[in-house]
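User: For my dataset I need records formatted as: sequence, then structure tokens, nothing else. Please produce one.
Assistant:
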Amino acid sequence: MVGPPFDSPPGRSGHTLKRTLTRSPAAYPIPWAPAAPTRPPSPPRAPAGRTFPE
């Protein structure tokens, strides 16, 4: 049986791991994807075509 085209270890462990991470990312703490509560509140955005008054 030929494995997946992308680089992965023998067996389906790699594929299963990727699918699990994609389905439930919250279950795995990812450094480059912090949880929403830990992220600072985004600054207010100006309306389209306008800028904040100085």
